[in-house]
Design the sequence.
């Protein structure tokens, strides 16, 4: 089950089969969870206690929450989580994240952005991202996005730019090309490109 603590907007909403999603504000990975949820009209809310057992993290618990509003053209979300251990499995101060996102759709174009802050248990960070997507026809879609991550207390700010185009002649098949450019301070830039084929059953 996906964590409810992530913000599913901005770069979190890109197709991104291959390239890095710089600036994404995901949750605390897949989880076993106990969730309470409420929905009325365009408003929904949920809170969950999540367990994230992995090979490196034993009994890593988190509390996550989200509040969403969904309209015809505009939707928004506030979400966050706090965990007893950081993502590397080293027992430390609590790690946490809080973020918000908004999505606006009009005709063939969708614009979405997200921003958030958090702490890994060792240092804080700030993330922002934005994504534009357009359905050029029933079978062709293009995406263009960018994200920025600024860790606390060092010079390793990271900027990522992403672009993709997909052709889906039938609902079970998508063929596309993705390109990603990532630049971190004091580190050589990385350029990734891939041709992707996705089968849906």
Sequence:
């Amino acid at each position: 089950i996906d964590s409810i603590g992530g913000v599913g907007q901005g770069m979190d909403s890109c197709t991104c089969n291959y390239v890095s999603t710089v600036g994404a504000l995901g949750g605390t990975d897949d989880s076993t969870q106990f969730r309470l949820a409420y929905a009325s009209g365009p408003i929904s809310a949920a809170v969950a206690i999540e367990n994230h057992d992995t090979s490196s993290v034993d009994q890593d618990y988190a509390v996550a929450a989200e509040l969403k509003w969904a309209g015809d053209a505009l939707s928004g979300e506030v979400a966050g989580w706090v965990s007893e251990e950081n993502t590397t499995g080293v027992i430390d101060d609590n790690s946490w994240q809080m973020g918000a996102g908004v999505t606006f759709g009009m005709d063939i174009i969708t614009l979405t952005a997200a921003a958030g802050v958090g702490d890994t248990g060792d240092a804080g960070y700030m993330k922002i991202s934005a994504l534009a997507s357009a359905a050029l026809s029933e079978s062709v879609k293009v995406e263009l996005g960018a994200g920025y991550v600024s860790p606390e207390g060092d010079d390793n700010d990271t900027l990522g730019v992403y672009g993709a185009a997909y052709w889906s002649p039938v609902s079970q098949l998508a063929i596309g090309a993705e390109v990603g450019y990532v630049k971190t301070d004091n580190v050589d830039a990385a350029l990734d490109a891939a041709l992707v084929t996705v089968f849906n059953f």
